[in-house]
Design brief:
Layout (H helix, E strand, L loop, with lengths): L3 E7 L5 H10 L3 E4 H11 L1 H11 L12 H8 L3 H25 L4 E5 L3 H4 L7 E6 L2 H8 L5 H10 L1 H7 L4 E4 L4 H20 L1
Parallel strand pairs: 1-3, 1-4, 2-3, 4-5
Helix pairs in contact: 2-3, 2-5
C-alpha cells in the first residue's frame, strides 16, 4: 500500500471540517491547518516577535499570551494584513505539515487547510479536494458565530481563495443534506482516494 497525501480546502462555513471528520471515519489521518497555525503563533519565537511588533500589545492577554480573537479582528480587516500574516506563518506551518506526513504510519493523510491553493502548494498532494457551499447557506451556518458584517468582510476577502479552490481535483458541493454530503465523501473515498493507495 502506498502512502498518499490529500489536500482539503474550503472557505469559511463550507463544511470543510465536516468533510474532514467523514474522511477520518474511513480511516484517514487528519492534520489540521488551524491547529498547526495556532502552534506556530503561540510557540514560534520569530513569529511571536513579529506579530507583537506589528499589532502591538493590544493583542496580548494579561498573562502575556496572544488573544487570537483580537488578532483575527485586526488581520481580517484588510487584505494586506491577511497577506502579511500568511507570509509570516506559512513557512513554519508548511514545515510542520511535511513533518507530520513523513512521520505518519497511515496510508491516507489529509491536510485540512483553507489556504492550500493560496499558499501555492496544491501540486504537492496526490489529490486535492475543494469544498464549496452557496453564499446564503454559509451565512446561515456561521451566523451565530460572527456578525453579518464580519461574515461579509471575511467572505469578500476569501473570494480569490474560493476561485482557486475551483481548480481542485475533486469538488464537493455542500448545499444539501448531511446524507448527500456523506454520499459524496463516500464516492470520493472509494473512487478517488483508495485507487491512489494501490
Amino acid at each position: 500500500m502506498k502512502k498518499i497525501s490529500v489536500g482539503l480546502a474550503g472557505g469559511i462555513g463550507s463544511g470543510k471540517s465536516t468533510v474532514a471528520s467523514l474522511l477520518e471515519n474511513y480511516g484517514a489521518e487528519i492534520v489540521s491547518g488551524d491547529e498547526l497555525g495556532r502552534e506556530v503563533v503561540e510557540n514560534d519565537p520569530s513569529v511571536k516577535v513579529e506579530i507583537q511588533r506589528v499589532l502591538g500589545d493590544t493583542v496580548l492577554r494579561p498573562d502575556g499570551s496572544f488573544d487570537r480573537g483580537r488578532i483575527a479582528q485586526r488581520v481580517f480587516a484588510e487584505q494586506r494584513m491577511i497577506d502579511w500574516l500568511t507570509k509570516l506563518t506559512f513557512p513554519a506551518i508548511h514545515m510542520r505539515w511535511l513533518s507530520a506526513f513523513q512521520s505518519s504510519n497511515s496510508r491516507v493523510i489529509v491536510f485540512d487547510a483553507a489556504l492550500i491553493f493560496e499558499w501555492g502548494i496544491e501540486r504537492e498532494f496526490d489529490l486535492t479536494i475543494g469544498v464549496l457551499a452557496d453564499h446564503e447557506l454559509v451565512m446561515s451556518r456561521i451566523g451565530e458565530k460572527f456578525s453579518r458584517d464580519d461574515i461579509l468582510r471575511r467572505m469578500s476577502l476569501q473570494a480569490s481563495m474560493i476561485g482557486k479552490i475551483m481548480f481542485a481535483d475533486v469538488l464537493i458541493e455542500n448545499n444539501d443534506s448531511r446524507e448527500n454530503l456523506m454520499r459524496q465523501v463516500e464516492r470520493v473515498w472509494y473512487d478517488n482516494i483508495l485507487p491512489l493507495t494501490a
